[in-house]
Design goal:
about 575 residues; alpha/beta; 6-stranded parallel beta sheet; 15 helices; single chain; disordered C terminus; globular; about 30% helix; 25 strands
């Protein structure tokens, strides 16, 4: 089925609508001039037109009838669209993007911009000259949504001022918040002109055209198939040294606290061929680091080709389970990671965000063996209590998680681990909190993302659990987790002092214009002086250091989360 990205019903152009079958009369007396035979003839004619006319399928978007795919320019056209292609052109109008939330939203921005660019829109980084302002939003927590509401108030004030001097400015909401709060966004003080959910970016040109006519326009339908595989994102990474590549969308895990399955839909994986083509293109452009993206990135399973569709069941980490039936067939994440890493041996490969359940040994062994796959794994725990993990529907116990950590460290001894934790989930006790603190101490993470629980509508927790931990207790527990995490991260990072690390230079440090910053293979941030270095040891020739260069550096000191000072440059890896 074609992607459900436009209004559910359209009027086909090839059948002319029947304007009048017979006159309508207000009394039987006025109808005396129509004989039974004439009436029968008219009815038969109507039945004939119905039988030869469009069927129900012709009125449903998503049914593959009368559609054309032009592979040359990778655009998809629908003959039933009621707006001509000319009306959907941007005519050099300027679009301004603001991106909030996760890396997937960064990639979504690149996809949306690619679609609009083809239609003749121009991109601007100056808000004051924008004709269209698009906010790519996040719904994972209440604070993230409140940020958008505040921003909309500011933009609406600016829009009202623009009405007096310029072409009216249009404001659009894209992404998860558009899907979750569609009704409120359209009705609350009329702040928004356009809404487009995560699976509706192809429809943006039409939505903006409708908005130009003075109407609010929205499309927040979720798709079972949309991966934007034929859309080549326009990458806007800082300095051009790194890029995000989306490999799958949606999530089937249905964790009780999580809104993602309701805003992003079910899992579907992008065909491997299109992923490899994009990575090759980035390599040709000189990109030095690619991050593979997905809501559950390591559950990747490409079934686009018949040769991939076997009967073998997806392997899970030992001791883990899912809320859904085991999936069969498909090209798995380990296969994709293997193929991507072979494209350019000097290009770093990262991936995020994974689920702990999808780390079978073949994935871990590939990471250990392949030099350019970073030895850094994000392993979201969410809690250290088996009781809370069960309430969260995570599919594992504390013991299973710790066994996985041991297995990872056995196969990849130099691995760096990061994690997510939620403080104050429904029913969490002080004992549960202490178990979480002990888990943080036992594992030893380099980086962490810790938040207080924020209940989301539509989720399992919203319908079945009580948000019974007071806000003040949530805050206190979060501060405790952050404190313990920083202590352990300082200990882990201290082990790097004196070691030699390969660093990919990102650019100038925010701390000082005299310093540069970069990241190690383990994704630790490093700060070092901005100065020319020897191209090779024992040579007098020097070269300036630029973003995208690799440096071998010796770590001199470190803090818990941010940076290390470099004592000595060793060499540049060309």
């Amino acid at each position: 089925m074609e992607y459900l990205r436009k209004p559910l019903f359209t009027i086909p152009q090839q059948w002319t609508p029947l304007r009048c079958i017979q006159p309508r009369y207000c009394s039987k007396l006025a109808n005396t001039s129509v004989t039974p035979r004439e009436r029968k003839t008219t009815v038969n004619k109507f039945k004939s037109q119905i039988s030869s006319g469009p069927s129900f399928q012709d009125f449903i978007k998503g049914v593959s009838v009368n559609k054309t795919y032009n592979a040359a320019d990778e655009e998809y056209y629908d003959k039933h669209s009621y707006l001509s292609q000319d009306l959907e052109m941007g005519n050099s109008r300027k679009v301004y993007f603001e991106t909030y939330g996760c890396q997937m939203n960064v990639n979504d921005t690149e996809i949306a911009w690619s679609i609009l660019q083809r239609k003749g829109y121009q991109r601007t980084v100056d808000l004051s000259e924008a004709d269209v302002v698009l906010l790519v939003t996040c719904s994972i927590r209440e604070k993230a949504e409140q940020t958008i509401w505040n921003r909309l108030q500011q933009l609406t004030t600016m829009k009202k001022r623009r009405l007096k001097t310029h072409t009216p400015m249009k404001i659009g909401i894209l992404g998860c918040m558009a899907e979750r709060l569609k009704t409120e966004l359209l009705e609350r003080e009329k702040l928004v002109d356009v809404l487009a959910g995560p699976d509706a970016y192809r429809d943006l040109p039409r939505l903006l055209t409708v908005a130009d006519g003075g109407h609010q326009a929205s499309n927040v339908l979720l798709s079972l198939e949309e991966t934007y595989a034929d859309i080549m994102p326009v990458h806007h990474a800082p300095h051009g040294y790194s890029a995000f590549v989306s490999i799958m969308r949606g999530c089937d895990n249905m964790c009780s606290y999580c809104i993602v399955p309701f805003t992003r839909g079910k899992e579907r994986s992008r065909p491997v061929i299109s992923i490899l083509d994009e990575v090759r293109m980035l390599s040709d452009q000189g990109v030095k680091e690619v991050t593979l993206l997905g809501q559950n990135v390591n559950s990747y399973r490409d079934t686009s080709e018949e040769q991939f569709c076997g009967s073998d069941v997806t392997k899970l980490s030992q001791g883990f389970k899912t809320v859904y039936r085991s999936k069969q067939g498909g090209l798995r994440f380990s296969d994709l990671l293997d193929r991507v890493s072979r494209i350019d041996p000097d290009m770093r490969i990262r991936f995020t965000s994974p689920h702990p359940k999808d780390f079978p040994d073949e994935v871990l062994q590939l990471i250990a063996e392949r030099r350019n796959i970073c030895k850094q794994i994000h392993l979201p725990a969410q809690s250290g209590s088996s009781t809370v993990l069960k309430a969260m529907r995570r599919g594992y116990t504390r013991e299973a998680y710790l066994d996985l950590v041991k297995n990872i460290k056995r196969i990849i001894p130099e691995v760096s681990l990061s994690s997510d934790f939620i403080s104050g989930f429904c029913g969490e006790t002080e004992d549960d909190q202490q178990q979480t603190l002990s888990l943080i101490r036992e594992v030893g993470y380099n980086v962490g993302f810790l938040f207080a629980y924020s209940m989301r509508k539509k989720t399992h927790a919203f319908h079945r659990l009580q948000d019974d931990v007071p806000a003040e207790v949530k805050r206190q527990r979060l501060e405790e987790c952050i404190g313990v995490f920083r202590e352990e991260a300082a200990r882990v990072n201290a082990a790097l002092i004196g070691s030699t690390q390969l660093v990919l230079v990102e650019g100038e440090s925010k701390r000082s214009a005299k310093d540069l910053c970069g990241r190690t293979d383990g994704n630790m941030k490093v700060i070092f002086p901005k100065e020319d270095v020897a191209v090779r040891p024992a040579e007098s020739n020097t070269a300036s250091v630029n973003a995208g260069d690799y440096l071998l550096v010796k770590v001199g000191s470190g803090t818990s989360l941010k940076s290390h000072h470099i004592l000595k440059y060793l060499s540049i890896k060309c």
